[in-house]
Design goal:
By secondary structure, the protein is α/β, with parallel strands linked by helices. The protein is 52% helix and 21% strand.
Length: 150
């Protein structure tokens, strides 16, 4: 099965892709269109082009495991996804994935870590959001694999 990882944000939606037969999640270009409808159209195009069978959406639990305001926003977004695309949606814990993605990205990219402007550019482009999405999608795949659920 093919999966689309989704890291929801108001302005950018990080995206990643995985084919469960390979078991590897990779970041793809984020949905950064100016409008919500544009971002949803972009997600729909990825679903169609990559023959996605399920969506794995990062779920922002609070550090204590409770559900806060941001998680309720994601719940509303998930309702839209379910209505539009008629695919199963998995909520997967994304705590610290954005922080880890940013740390990993800038530790590997010496030019970007030297420049504040470069950091801001990568944030705006959705690169970090898509890397965060790939991190939790990979964790989902690894967890699913270790449970013997494939």
């Amino acid at each position: 099965m093919n999966y689309l990882g989704i890291d929801y944000g108001h302005k950018r939606i990080g995206l990643s892709y995985a084919d469960s037969s390979l078991g590897v999640a990779v970041p793809i270009a984020a949905a950064v269109e100016a409008s919500r409808d544009g971002r949803l159209t972009r997600i729909g195009a990825e679903i169609k082009a990559r023959r996605i069978g399920a969506l794995v959406v990062g779920y922002p639990y609070n550090m204590d495991g409770s559900v806060g305001e941001k998680a309720r926003e994601v719940d509303e977004f998930i309702k839209i996804l379910e209505s539009m695309f008629k695919l199963p949606v998995v909520r997967f814990d994304e705590r610290l994935s954005s922080f880890q993605a940013e740390q990993d990205f800038f530790s590997m990219n010496s030019k970007a870590k030297k420049s504040v402007a470069a950091r801001q550019k990568h944030r705006r482009s959705g690169d970090i959001d898509s890397r965060a999405s790939a991190l939790f999608l990979q964790e989902y795949l690894d967890t699913k694999d270790s449970d013997g659920a494939w």
